[in-house]
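Repro:
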Amino acid sequence: MPADSIDAKTRQQLKDERHNYVLVEGTKSALMFGAAGVFGHLLAQRTWPLYQRQSLPFKSFLLICIPMAAFFTTTDKAAMAADRQYAQRFSITSADELEVKELVPAAASDSALDRAKSFVLGNRFALLGYGWLGAVGLSLMYNFSRKEISLPQKLINSRMVAQSAALAGFAGLAVLTTTSASTPAVRIDPYFQRVVEGTAGPSLNSNGTAVSSSTH
């Protein structure tokens, strides 16, 4: 059913349903990770001397950041999923045509090192982001345990450590990308090619190999 064939009331109801779904998913994630953060705080408060020496504002900051990050991350993913379901519900294109297929050439060897390289290159942005957050958190904990320096100096030190870690990560990824012998994967989006280029796009056989089409 085309989206322009529904009335304004139904359209608003569908919009409210999507918004409610996104908020519910984000709230559940925030409660779950918030409870895990409180449990981790209580456990660290009893067993981790370094954490015990941290100030109350810093501990409160961590306890607030955990559910907040979980809420916004989950709502972002839920919003994209809800919009995609809404588009598929009223789209004239079938769901399998919306799937972006990725053709990965067979590697020359299947060693543990090659698999590790492939994993790092395939998840490079997530690794950089979480690595930066980890460097910030560890640096803040270390600097806040030092009583001889001021608060601005603690923040500056933490920022410099995190920035250095991010630059080192970018440099490592650059070296890994240039030295990797693997061929990058070929991404095929038939829906994009149909709309933008006016073609149906290459089809894929059972082995995932692109089959050229003679019709245009």
